[in-house]
Design goal:
The protein is an alpha+beta fold. It contains 8 helices and 6 strands; from the N terminus they run E-H-E-H-E-E-H-H-E-E-H-H-H-H. A hairpin with a 2-residue loop joins strand 3 and strand 4. The structure holds glutathione. One of its GO terms (biological process) is glutathione metabolic process.
Length: 237
């Protein structure tokens, strides 16, 4: 079997990073293929993308689309998807929320519109991006953080979200925490999708965002895992 190939835009971590973290944590070899927007259009227009979107994962000639499906496949390979059906569903629930949160976050930047008979993303005006981002960080993200804190506190005597060992759900929360960290490069790097230029930007989430003890402890545990630490040193958010 060949290594799976993960395709995503080369300007950021986005919806592909959870799958990367899972592969890396589980020591599963994969090819990380960053592509330009031009290459994306070529793949889309030649019918290689089942939903005309990225990420996709190619596994021995089969293409898997949708970030949660890709991450679940990776989690099963990496041993990070629980064998117990109820615990598995609990992790699905959290990873579905990961996607909901990213959808809202991306929605701060882009609208989805029909153009020339095709559903595509359209960039919002900088002023609107700022309004939506402020709302996102003031309300949506804080609200979800409190929910994650509560889930950890009710998973008996463990620092993890579900059960007593780390699952892909913990990596999903970690991915969100790193993405929304006020020090993440994505806020300061002009070539990323997230950068908002003068005079409205650069935008940075407030450092005052809730810091919750159990969520922070979980993040620390993951950050200190040697393989993740090495990966993030060479590929910071
Ligand atoms: N539900 C999909 C959403 C994927 C998605 O929106 N991908 C964006 C980049 S983050 C994309 O390729 N957009 C191109 C388009 O929709 O025109 C997933 O979770 O993978």
């Amino acid at each position: 079997m060949n290594n799976p190939i993960l395709f995503y835009y080369n300007d950021g971590k986005g919806r592909a990073e959870l799958s990367r973290l899972i592969f890396i944590y589980g020591d599963i070899s994969f090819e990380d293929k960053g592509i330009s927007f031009q290459e994306y259009f070529q793949m889309r227009d030649s019918g290689q993308l089942p939903f005309e979107q990225l990420p996709i994962l190619q596994v021995d000639g089969t293409t898997i689309s949708q970030s949660c499906a890709i991450a679940r496949y990776a989690a099963k390979k990496a041993g990070l998807y629980p064998n117990d059906n109820v615990q598995a569903a609990q992790t699905d629930m959290i990873v579905d929320a990961w996607r909901d949160i990213l959808d809202i976050f991306y929605g701060c930047y882009v609208d989805r519109v029909v153009d020339n008979g095709r559903l595509v993303m359209k960039m919002r005006e900088p002023k609107v991006k700022l309004e939506k981002l402020n709302e996102f960080f003031d309300t949506t993200w804080s609200m979800h953080l409190r929910r994650f804190e509560k889930m950890i506190s009710s998973s008996s005597n463990s620092p993890f979200l579900v059960g007593d060992s780390l699952t892909w759900a913990d990596l999903a929360l970690f991915d969100l925490l790193c993405t929304f960290d006020e020090n993440a490069n994505l806020w300061k790097t002009e070539s990323t999708f997230f950068y908002i230029p003068d005079p409205y930007g650069p935008y940075r989430p407030s450092a005052e965002i809730l810091k919750l003890p159990l969520v922070n402890e979980l993040s620390k545990i993951i950050k200190q895992t040697p393989s993740i630490k090495t990966w993030l040193t060479s590929h910071p958010y």
